[in-house]
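Researcher: Sequence recovery benchmark, item below. Answer with residues only.
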């Protein structure tokens, strides 16, 4: 191709050498492919004719039988029926070859603009240098179509005869510039899933790519490939025969696009019973009690119909037979069998395929051409055992994503006997919001101090340790009287308990809240508030100030500052004591702290929540509690030395608040109550300073009198 420099002519010595002599015939033959209608050759046929690929150390012609499951997805990119082709699979499946055959088909057979998007510029450059350039250089039919000009072969662009191939990365200006007939997105789940500025995102890379192909109408296509990298949304998700090929919905990424599509899965035909089944890692049969390497070496695929076993050496044969029609890609059809409730499975060209413009494919690691069952099983078993020992599932999740090619559901939530969000959700009790159950005799308020909010839980207690949350909320806004409470536009700042001592004043009214007892003419006020002494920087001092202020108001005996002590080997569960003298000669604080053996208390809280039956010691949850709060309660798991947050978990306040509530209840003597003769302050009667009559007749007459006596009672508690 002739390239003329378009710079302004300067001094003679700065004019670059002229391009080599070109005849008009050369020019014409260069331009003619642009006038040629798109060739009818399929992507795979073109690859076998024109493409040479590296295989076992040498360059050989492309061979469809090496990764037979890529044939249909590659060829379907040229179909006018689908606007997008999605391939989800493990890392050793030849997904990137799918990308290359499709892009090179455009070079040889359908010269229109094509764009390839990698996850980063570094990845794009590395791919061009290590994969694309050698591929072009070793494939004569491709190489001779590459322009000879200086700008025709760069990291970001290859100009072939009649078509440009651009190589980019996911930033909005690359995905919103010119029209493309095809956009190929590789390693999709490792791209940012929202492009553009945070406050006005332009969309997912997939959505933006679809915009690019619009002008090419039905000829346009977006190809997306990736291993999944986002976890399953709902660990309680389970198989539905009406959607047999649905992947458990993930929080983001390619799995969501796959589920929108035709949902193709790769099938083998059993050599014994001739039924079709999907080869999957979870269908591998092996002795899990053996060491991982030995377990892997003996792994065999089990036919789910006749249970015959197949060893790994048959994988190549099975995949090739599938390509020849004994198995292969089956997609979800539009019809469900009325009698069995099962969805019909169909071929990609069946008119009764799921009505969608996305052809989607999911390949399980068991059929992947370049991995072996023994390695996958050995790595899976190793990671699984490490997880069981340490509770750390990073390696295990990695096996699911990259080796098996499926989104990962956190296993500890799945395990039998373990309490799950699903179980809690199914066992919620009807109880009006901010109302005590009929058995409630006292109420506690727990507060967890965070950087910009207080997490608050209010718990109603029965005489035998049964309890229920009656309120759970966050305080995020300071009182009007606080410093800089509002800005010039009247908007409140977030509270900042470490910085502003007065922000703790938002907590004082919590002790005056009144909660009716179901079926009784009584209501209860919190008898105690327990406040986390640890929190953001500066909070401990402010917490102490708040306690002194409450003491001046005559409520010091109701406010407790708590501090957690970790480990299971602590002899006491709860003790009330002054902090030991600080190190470095620091003065010890003159206040007392409610010390909590948090890990031991967490055991108790979770065991109580897991009981699911009412009665002494039970901790049923109310129906109005949001699912996020249930997740907070189950946000940690037990390790050998203590509880720790599960990976990826951010909020755990409901668990901490429950621990504080149990600590104060035990400190107040919960475990020593004689239910037939409870102390006065645990009765629904006038002698209880925290009980409020709500029935006819007396109009809260007890209230004032109680305040006076409560300080006296408090002294008794403090001395316990
Ligand atoms: Zn069989």
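Model:
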């Amino acid at each position: 191709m002739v390239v003329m420099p378009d710079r302004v002519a300067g001094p003679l010595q700065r004019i670059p050498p002229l391009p080599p002599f070109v005849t008009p015939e050369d020019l014409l033959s260069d331009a003619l492919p642009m006038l040629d209608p798109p060739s009818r050759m399929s992507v795979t046929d073109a690859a076998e004719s024109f493409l040479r690929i590296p295989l076992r150390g040498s360059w050989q012609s492309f061979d469809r039988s090496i990764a037979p499951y890529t044939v249909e997805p590659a060829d379907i990119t040229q179909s006018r029926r689908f606007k997008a082709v999605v391939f989800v699979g493990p890392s050793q499946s030849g997904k990137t070859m799918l990308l290359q055959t499709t892009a090179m088909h455009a070079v040889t057979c359908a010269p229109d603009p094509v764009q390839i998007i990698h996850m980063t510029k570094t990845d794009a450059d590395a791919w061009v240098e290590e994969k694309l350039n050698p591929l072009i250089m070793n494939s004569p039919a491709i190489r001779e179509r590459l322009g000879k000009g200086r700008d025709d072969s760069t990291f970001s662009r290859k100009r072939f005869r009649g078509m440009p191939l651009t190589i980019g990365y996911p930033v909005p200006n690359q995905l919103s510039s010119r029209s493309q007939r095809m956009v190929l997105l590789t390693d999709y789940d490792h791209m940012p899933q929202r492009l553009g500025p945070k406050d006005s995102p332009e969309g997912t890379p997939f959505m933006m790519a679809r915009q690019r192909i619009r002008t090419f109408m039905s000829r346009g296509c977006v190809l997306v490939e990736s291993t999944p990298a986002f976890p399953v949304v709902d660990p309680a998700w389970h198989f539905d025969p009406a959607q047999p090929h649905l992947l458990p919905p993930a929080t983001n990424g390619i799995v969501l696009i796959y589920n929108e599509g035709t949902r193709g899965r790769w099938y083998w035909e059993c050599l014994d019973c001739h039924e079709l089944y999907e080869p999957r890692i979870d269908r591998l049969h092996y002795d899990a009690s053996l060491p991982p390497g030995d377990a892997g070496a003996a792994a065999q695929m089990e036919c789910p119909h006749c249970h015959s076993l197949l060893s790994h050496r048959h994988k190549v044969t099975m995949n090739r037979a599938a390509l020849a029609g004994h198995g292969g890609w089956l997609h979800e059809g539009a019809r469900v069998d009325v009698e069995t409730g099962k969805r019909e499975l169909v071929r990609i060209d069946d008119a009764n395929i799921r009505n969608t413009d996305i052809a989607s494919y999911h390949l399980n690691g068991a059929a992947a051409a370049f991995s072996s069952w023994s390695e996958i099983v050995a790595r899976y078993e190793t990671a699984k055992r490490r997880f069981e020992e340490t509770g750390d599932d990073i390696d295990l999740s990695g096996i699911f994503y990259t080796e098996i090619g499926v989104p990962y559901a956190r296993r500890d939530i799945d395990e039998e006997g373990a309490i799950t969000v699903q179980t809690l959700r199914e066992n919620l009790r009807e109880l009006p919001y901010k109302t005590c159950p009929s058995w409630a005799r006292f109420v506690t308020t727990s507060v967890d101090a965070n950087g910009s909010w207080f997490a608050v839980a209010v718990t109603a207690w029965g005489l035998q340790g049964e309890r229920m949350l009656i309120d759970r909320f966050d305080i995020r806004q300071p009182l009007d009287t606080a410093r800089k409470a509002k800005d010039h536009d009247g908007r409140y700042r977030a509270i900042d308990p470490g910085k502003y001592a007065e922000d703790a004043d938002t907590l004082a009214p919590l002790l005056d809240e009144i909660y009716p007892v179901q079926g009784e003419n009584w209501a209860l006020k919190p008898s105690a508030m327990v406040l986390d002494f640890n929190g953001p920087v500066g909070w401990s001092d402010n917490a102490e100030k708040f306690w002194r202020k409450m003491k001046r108001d005559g409520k010091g005996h109701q406010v407790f500052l708590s501090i957690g002590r970790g480990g299971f080997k602590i002899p006491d569960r709860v003790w009330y004591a002054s902090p030991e003298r600080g190190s470095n000669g620091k003065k010890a604080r003159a206040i007392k702290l409610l010390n909590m053996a948090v890990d031991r208390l967490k055991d108790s809280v979770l065991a109580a929540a897991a009981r699911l039956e009412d009665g002494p010691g039970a901790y049923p949850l109310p129906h109005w509690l949001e699912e996020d709060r249930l997740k907070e309660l189950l946000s940690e798991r037990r390790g050998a030395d203590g509880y720790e947050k599960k990976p990826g978990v951010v909020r755990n306040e409901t668990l901490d608040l429950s621990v504080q509530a149990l600590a104060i209840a035990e400190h107040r003597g919960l475990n020593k109550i004689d239910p037939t003769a409870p102390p006065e302050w645990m009765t629904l009667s006038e002698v209880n300073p925290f009980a409020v009559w709500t029935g006819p007749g007396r109009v809260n007459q007890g209230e004032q009198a109680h305040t006076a006596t409560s300080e006296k009672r408090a002294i008794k508690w403090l001395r316990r």
